[in-house]
């Protein structure tokens, strides 16, 4: 029997078919993981991802504050990335699109069982079928994360970025939590994870997210990081 014949799997052999499919899927993940190791040597734009609720309406304080913050970031020369939907995502994209700079207003959306159209202020759109690949793109393309008030989805995004910073899959990437809802989350984590006989986290893990009261304090955190990034990009461009 030839090698080709020996490796042939009948479609009637359900267990073997499942094994072939599982091996193929795992092989695809290996390819994807290998490709995501690639990074450009130099990028033209600093990118800030803004997470936040899809339910906040235009004209409210949260909406207008998020829009103002995104506009200030765009005026600094930053691209703004959101989930591309309504609410605070729309506020951030609207703020970015109003700046005179040539900043990009980017939306990374996901298919949902209920329709959620891309907001009209997005200039560039990426589409995903799963939250997992969508979150991966946020991580790969962002230099800082700014988290406005939000619900379960926003908390999921925040905790994923926090965990990646904890294990150093992300480094030197600000995670800034804006507003009154976030200090309570950090206090809960400290009380629940550090007060047991066998701590469930390290004290330094609790300092990874930076809680700030408002957009101005968030901008004050991002400005020096942005300046350092610009200097690093300039130094990289000067290397031979």
Write the layout of secondary structure elements.
Blueprint: H1 3-7, H2 14-35, E1 46-51, H3 61-75, E2 78-82, H4 88-98, E3 105-110, E4 124-128, H5 131-141, E5 144-147, H6 152-166, E6 175-178, H7 182-194, E7 209-212, H8 215-238
Parallel strand pairs: 1-2, 1-5, 2-3, 3-4, 5-6, 6-7
Helix pairs in contact: 3-4, 3-8
Describe this structure in words.
It comes from Stieleria maiorica. It is a single chain. Helix content is 48%, strand content 14%. With 240 residues, it is α/β, with parallel strands linked by helices. It has a seven-stranded parallel beta sheet, with helices on both faces. Helix 3 links the parallel strand 1 and strand 2.
Integer count of domains:
1
CATH class: Alpha Beta
Radius of gyration, taken over Cα atoms and rounded to an integer in Å: 21 Å
Gap from first CA to last CA: 57 Å
What is the global morphology? globular
Strand order of the largest sheet: 4-3-2-1-5-6-7
State the helicity in percent bands.
Answer: 40-55%
Report the order of strands and helices. HHEHEHEEHEHEHEH
Q: Structural class, judged by helices and strands?
A: alpha/beta
What fraction of the residues are assigned to beta strands by DSSP? 5-15%
The biggest beta sheet is recorded as: 7 strands, parallel
Write down the overall mean pLDDT: 88
**How many DSSP H or I helices?**
8
Pfam families: Lysine_decarbox
Enzyme class: hydrolase
Catalytic activity: AMP + H2O = D-ribose 5-phosphate + adenine
EC number: 3.2.2.4
């Amino acid at each position: 029997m030839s090698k080709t014949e020996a490796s042939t799997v009948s479609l009637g052999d359900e267990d073997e078919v499942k094994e072939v499919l599982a091996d193929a899927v795992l092989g695809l993940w290996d390819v994807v993981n290998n490709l995501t190791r690639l990074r450009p040597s130099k990028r033209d734009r600093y990118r800030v991802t803004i997470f936040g609720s899809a339910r906040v309406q235009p004209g409210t304080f949260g909406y207008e504050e998020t829009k103002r913050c995104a506009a200030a970031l765009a005026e600094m020369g930053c691209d703004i990335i959101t989930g591309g939907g309504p609410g605070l995502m729309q506020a951030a994209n609207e703020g970015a699109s109003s700046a005179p700079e040539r900043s990009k207003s980017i939306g990374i959306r996901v298919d949902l069982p209920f329709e959620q159209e891309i907001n009209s202020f997005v200039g560039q759109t990426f589409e995903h079928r799963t939250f997992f690949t969508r979150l991966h793109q946020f991580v790969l393309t962002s230099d800082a994360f700014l988290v406005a008030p939000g619900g379960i989805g926003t908390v999921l995004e925040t905790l994923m970025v926090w965990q990646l910073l904890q294990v150093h899959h992300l480094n030197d990437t600000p995670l800034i939590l804006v507003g009154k809802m976030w200090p309570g989350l950090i206090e809960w984590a400290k009380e629940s994870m550090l007060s047991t006989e066998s701590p469930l986290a390290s004290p330094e893990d609790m300092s990874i997210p930076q809680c700030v009261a408002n957009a101005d304090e968030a901008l004050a955190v991002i400005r020096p990081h942005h300046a350092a990034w610009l200097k690093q990009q300039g130094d990289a461009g000067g290397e031979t």
